[in-house]
Design a protein that fits this description.
Low-confidence stretches of chain A: none
Mean pLDDT of chain B: 92
Distance between the termini of chain A: 41 Å
Mean pLDDT of chain A: 93
Structural class of chain A: mainly beta
Oligomer: heterodimer
Radius of gyration of chain B: 13 Å
Strand content of chain B: over 45%
Helix content of chain A: under 10%
Helix content of chain B: under 10%
Low-confidence stretches of chain B: none
Number of strands of chain A: 11
Number of helices of chain B: 0
Largest interface: A-B, 21 and 25 residues
Order of helices and strands of chain B: EEEEEEEEEEE
Number of strands of chain B: 11
Largest sheet of chain A: 6 strands, mixed
Radius of gyration of chain A: 13 Å
Shape of chain A: globular
Structural class of chain B: mainly beta
Distance between the termini of chain B: 37 Å
Chain lengths: 113, 116
Amino acid sequence: KNQVEQSPQSLIILEGKNCTLQCNYTVSPFSNLRWYKQDTGRGPVSLTIMTFSENTKSNGRYTATLDADTKQSSLHITASQLSDSASYICVVNSYQAGTALIFGKGTTLSVSS
Amino acid sequence: GAVVSQHPSWVICKSGTSVKIECRSLDFQATTMFWYRQFPKQSLMLMATSNEGSKATYEQGVEKDKFLINHASLTLSTLTVTSAHPEDSSFYICSALYTSGNNEQFFGPGTRLTVL
């Protein structure tokens, strides 16, 4: 069964600190993996997209990694800001599923001052 | 990046009434759009795939007669929740498929539906 598991479920950090969010997937075949940021009451906004051949991609203070062999991905946030407080969702696109996306449940990040 | 809008951003209605939600791709044409529903602290759940000029494809368990989808143009898809009930209260999010190399979906800001 195609699944995307994220950990931790929630995380609280102090402003300025770094953090890493994890994503494990069992989706096959694999097309690409995306990380989205979803603010409360808003739609998801894309942070990174990685295909099979890419193992790291950065977008400002966000750096995503992908290990296609172990089917694991991480999202690293450096020098966190209060505005980083949101839900971070790992999403995998499977060729078999066409353009349908398989969503993780997300990690809720709270950055406090 | 590509922009997708939704209207309204929130709506409150009485039980038994119908509500229409619009999804527009503002700066690109989208042959395919998707409708999702998200309950509190849950992930997005795909409801249906909307294809311009043809019937929508519904996911298992989603009532097509209750959630009417129309994709009459390359920039607009509508979702009508018919005879809404309190259990239909949810956050509805659309996305539009941007047919680049990664076939990326761009999401709208969502519509909060509350049925009294």
